[in-house]
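Just scan this pair:

***
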Amino acid sequence: MGRCRALVVSYHRAIDSGRAAAGIGAFADDAEFEAHGRVFRGRDEILGFLKAREANSGRQTVHVVANEVVNVQDDGSDDQRS
């Protein structure tokens, strides 16, 4: 669970520091990401979303990560929601 939390925290720090695209490292190739009522599938779509977020330099965000839920599958893979 510690590695999942570290990925989530590093992703949010990248966004909060104005470097949203740097957060792509938190996502697997087949990741799905939900934001603003849309689902982005795969790293290419997610990266497009992150680059657009980064380009919006007038927006300031500070994330607080809470209520984390980590689901570990039998094959050792996992996902996290917060």
About this structure: The chain has one domain: 2-81.
